[in-house]
Amino acid sequence: MRPRKDPGIRREAFIDAAKGLFMERGFKGVSVCDVLDAVATRSSSPSVFYYYFSSKDELYRAVVETVAREYVADFRGAFASDEKGIEERFTLLVGGMRKSLAASRELIAEGGTEENRLLILDMRERVTQELAGLWSEFLSTAGLCAAESAHALALFVTGGMGELLFSHMVGGRACAEDDDELVDRLVEFTLGALGLPDGMRERLSNMLRGHGKDR
User: Fold this and answer.
1) N or C end of the chain, less CB within 10 A?
2) Is residue 213 part of a domain?
3) Count of CB atoms within 10 A of residue 12's CB?
């Protein structure tokens, strides 16, 4: 019989608590009881946990998927199928990068321990997969590359972004100035990888460099 749900504890509460614990201690360092202790205010019964998740592994996957979904959400506007020009799309992309980095500053600051590197890698892989799909469709429909090459180029771009972001996170670089430097590099390398005409690449680079910095 399926355990009864405690209406006072929502599924999202377990995910939020587990995210912090996994980042601090890594997967192996966190037990179901740890998550219950971090969440429950009235009851720490394991039945509440198992109403939502069959195991700690399922909770871990939910954390990874949630973080990836939240990260990618900041970019969906740039890839929406509408009449945006390339300048507006890249402006939205850069805005999404900065917003995600700012919102994840605490996560980044905690990302330098050996225990949580697996979590960061899993999140990176999930984000890369999600973003690659958006990039592939954008590159093809915008005519920035041949349709048959769009997916490969999308993986190249998003994989490179993911590697730079991973290095940023595990290095514990979490101040605004470091975020700005990372975003400027991502812009430079992405524009280069897309093989845009020199004039367009230079125009976009000048327009986007430092765009949206909070000073």
Assistant:
1) N
2) no
3) 11
- Note whether 148 and 111 are same-domain residues: yes
d(CA 46, CA 202): 58
- Structural domain of 98: 74-208
Q: Quick one: angle between helices 11-25 and 32-39, nearest 10?
A: 120
Q: Which two tokens stand for residue 10?
A: 């929502």
Residue type at 142? A
Same domain, 55 and 134: no
Contact yes or no for 204/191 (Cβ under 8 A):
yes
Same domain, 194 and 96: yes
CATH number, domain with residue 19: 1.10.10.60
Report if residue 192 sits inside a domain: yes
Question: For the segment 148-207, what is each residue's pLDDT rounded down to a tens digit?
Answer: 999 999 999 999 988 887 777 666 656 778 888 888 889 999 999 988 888 888 999 888
**In the chain, how many domains are there?**
2
In a domain? residue 161:
yes
pLDDT computed for residue 143 by the predictor? 84
